[in-house]
Amino acid sequence: MANAASLLTLVKLVLRFLVSGGIATAVHWAALWGLILLQVDAVLASSIGAFLGAIVNYFLQYFFTFKTKRQHKQALLAYAPAVLVSWLLNLVLFYSLYGDVFLDPLVAQVATTAVVMVVNFLLYKKVVFRAKSNT
After folding, report:
1. Nearest-angstrom CA–CA distance, 72 and 34
2. Whole-prediction pTM
3. Residue 129's CB: how many other CB atoms inside 10 A?
4. CB within 8 A of 31, min separation 6: which ones?
5. pLDDT tens, 109-128?
6. Least enclosed by CB within 10 Å: which of 69, 73, 82, 116?
C-alpha cells in the first residue's frame, strides 16, 4: 500500500512539474518566436527565452510544484547553478541541432526542450527543492 501511495505522490509531483514547466516553456518559446520575428539570431533568441523562462519557472516550481519549505535564499542558491546547467544545456543542444539536424528553429527547440525538461526535473527534485514538501 505504501508503494501505491508513493507512486501516486510521484505522479502528482510530475504532473505539477509539467504544468509549471509548460508555462515557463511557453514564456521561453514566445520570447524565442518574438525575437526571431525581430530578426535576432535564433541561438541568441533561444538563450534569452530560456533565461526568461527560468525566472518564471523558479516561482512556479517553488510555490506550486514542490511546495518547498526551503527559504528563498537557500532555494535560489541551489537554483542558480541548476539553471545555469540547464541554460548551457539548452544553448549547446539548440546550437548543435539547429541548422544541422533541424532547419526550423522551433523544431530544434522542441527537441532541445525535451532533453532539458528531464534534466531539470532531476535537478529540481534532488537538489534545488529537496526539503520535505507537501506533495
Report:
1. 31
2. 0.84
3. 23
4. 45, 48, 49, 52, 53
5. 999 999 999 999 899 888 88
6. 73
